[in-house]
Specification:
It is a single chain. The chain starts with a helix and ends with a helix. The chain is about 40% helix and about 10% strand.
């Protein structure tokens, strides 16, 4: 009987390893302690309007990626958050993975790790493979693409294809130390979907656990009214990630609330200057709290994220106050005092 119990215990243990389990708090804290302070930006090259234009073979541009990641390295950034897209994989699985590896090689040469994002409920609901639209003048993220889109995100008939995609990427790169974490679903429930996104959110966590990557998995909290989504995200993420585009007082309240989970934290989206979320008042706060800091935007480009979400400029004239982004295409900073501060907080020359 003792041998049978031991055998059953071994089988359960092996199964848990194969399936993967949520990390313990001890494991998460040990992982976080092994990294220097995590700072960086959400990155898309300035000549790409969306994830598809970044990743499709015809428009993948290593030269621009290399140059612009150089700007990030120069101010001491060590992490970029980068969106993938399932349609780019569907069109060319082998080529897509080859380009991911090429991107990672470039980033690694700049001493930058990557947070990859799988699904996304933000902006345009009908992504299409092939040539992407041109930017709409003065409109923030006019061409950004949801993934897998809508109603595709709520149609369970798509799940097998999406599962194959997620598991192939995770099995290909799940032991790659150039990748910091996997962000499984950006802002689930956005665009009025709310709990319609919960089944896909649950599935992508399940698929990721089955793939069992070495890196932690997470999905960022972002809308504090979405109780069911927030509960699932917080309870199933290995480390806690969140978004906050508010000023320092509100941001501190969110930090205090999330501290109750007793997990390492990374703010994977912040910095919207016209909403009082600046580098000078948020980045020191995050460093003091030892929370990873990933702002939105690196280089002003086709995403038009220098324009605010709800304040289009019909002429396309550059706003006096940029909403997001740090650099112009030539590497000149929007405000040198900002890059000086970032460099100083990152303790670089």
């Amino acid at each position: 009987m003792k041998k049978i119990i031991t055998l059953i215990a071994c089988i359960i243990s092996i199964s848990a390893i194969a399936q993967g389990q949520k990390w313990s708090k001890e494991k998460a804290k040990k992982w976080y302690a092994e990294h220097q302070w995590i700072t960086g930006a959400n990155f898309i090259p300035s000549n790409a309007i969306n994830q598809l234009e970044m990743w499709q073979e015809a428009t993948f541009d290593p030269e621009t990626i290399d140059r612009e990641l150089g700007y990030a390295e120069d101010i001491g950034f060590n992490t970029m958050r980068v969106y993938l897209h399932s349609l780019a994989y569907k069109a060319d699985p082998k080529g897509f993975k080859k380009r991911i590896n090429e991107y990672l090689k470039i980033a690694d040469e700049h001493h930058i790790q990557t947070i990859f994002v799988f699904f996304d409920d933000c902006w345009n609901k009908d992504p299409k493979i092939g040539k992407q639209p041109v930017p709409k003048t003065g409109i923030h993220n006019s061409g950004w693409a949801q993934d897998p889109g809508y109603p595709a995100s709520k149609e369970r008939a798509n799940d097998k294809e999406l599962e194959n995609y997620v598991k192939d990427i995770l099995s290909s790169f799940g032991k790659d130390n150039r990748i910091l974490i996997w962000d499984l679903y950006n802002e689930p429930g956005n665009n009025g979907k709310e709990n319609e996104s919960l089944p896909l959110l649950k599935n992508v966590f399940k698929w990721a656990r089955e793939a069992n990557p070495n890196q932690p998995i997470s999905a960022g909290l972002w809308n504090w009214g979405y109780q069911e989504l927030n509960t699932f995200q917080a309870q199933n993420s290995d480390i806690l990630t969140y978004h906050c585009y508010s000023g320092p007082e509100e941001h501190q309240k969110i930090i205090n609330l999330l501290k109750t989970h007793d997990l390492p934290m990374i703010c994977t989206e912040y910095m919207a200057r016209t909403r009082d979320s600046h580098f000078f008042n948020i980045l020191p706060l995050l460093k003091k709290e030892h929370i990873g800091a990933i702002n939105w935007g690196l280089v002003n480009g086709k995403t038009n994220t220098i324009f605010a979400w709800d304040t289009p400029i019909k002429t396309g004239e550059e706003p006096f106050v940029w909403f997001h982004d740090i650099f112009r295409k030539d590497g000149t900073p929007y405000h040198k005092d900002e890059t000086d501060l970032i460099r100083k907080l990152n303790q670089t020359k």
